[in-house]
From TrEMBL:
The keyword Chloroplast does not apply. Gene3D superfamilies: B-lactam Antibiotic, Isopenicillin N Synthase, Chain (2.60.120.330). Pfam families: Asp_Arg_Hydrox. It comes from Polarella glacialis (Dinoflagellate). The keyword Oxidoreductase applies. This is Aspartyl/asparaginy/proline hydroxylase domain-containing protein. Keywords: Dioxygenase, Oxidoreductase. It comes from the Eukaryota.
Amino acid sequence: MAARGAAKPLQHLWRCDVAMARLLRARRHEPGARRILAEGWVGRWPLSFLAAPQGLGRSVARLLQKPSYPKLCKPKLFFPFLTGKPVWPSNDAVSQALTSRWEEIREEFRAVMAESASADVNTKGLTARGSWQKVPLWSHGQPHTENLAKCPVTAEILAGLPLCKSLGMVYFSQLAPGTAVKPHFGPTNARLRYHLGLDVPEGNVMLAVADGYYRWAEGKTLVFNDAFIHAVHHEESTPRGVLVVDIYHPDLLEDERRLLEDLEKVHNSFFPAEYTRVLPH
C-alpha cells in the first residue's frame, strides 16, 4: 500500500479534509463542538458545512454569509465568539510564570541559539530584510525533545502552562540588527501570543500590532493576539531576542480546546513534514 505522503498534493489535501469532516460529524453533538461548529470559519467556509449532513440547508445558508472579522484581523481559522482585541494585559498567571525566572531562561536562550538556531520556511518568507532565526521548543502539540533537554528551566516552566496545542508554538526567536518582518496575520484567533523579552536593545525596536506600536522590555511580557496584522522593525545595532509562547484564548472552553487538538492530530497525520519544518508561524 502506498504511503499517505505519496498521494498527489490536491488529492492528499482532499483526504485530509474528508478525515477532519468525519471527525466533526462524529462529535457534533458534544458540548465542545457546539460553538465551534455553530460559529467557526475556515477562510470563507463555515465549519458547520463540514459537519452536518442533516443541517445541510442551514449550512448552505451560511455559505452566503461572510465571517465578521474585527478591524485589521483576518486569520484563516476564525471564531467570532472569542474576545477580539489586539493587545492584552501582561499581569496574568502566565506572564508571572514566565517572568519569575527570566534571567535563567535568557541564559538558556543564549546558549541554545548559538548552537541550534536556524531559519524556517516562515522566517525566510516573512523577512523583508535582515535575518530572523528560531529554536523551536513546541510545534502544534509536538515537543522538540532535543531542544527542550538543553533548556531545563524553560521546559519546567512551560510544563505548567496551558500551551496552545492546536495551531500553537513555542520557540526562541532572534532578530539580527536591521531586520524587518513583513506585516502578516497569524493562522487563528484561538490563541494569545506571549513574547518574553530576553535581549532587547534600546531604541527603535518595535512590534506593530493592528494600529499600535509596542516595545519589548527585558524580563517582561508583551501579550497580543497575532490574528491581528502585525510586523516587526529592528533598526538598532544588537540582536533582539524573545521567547515566544502561544496560549489558548481564555474564552475557549476546555472541551473546545480538546476538539481543536484532535483536529490538529488529524491534520498532522496527513502532513507530518509541516510539523518538522515548524509551520505555520
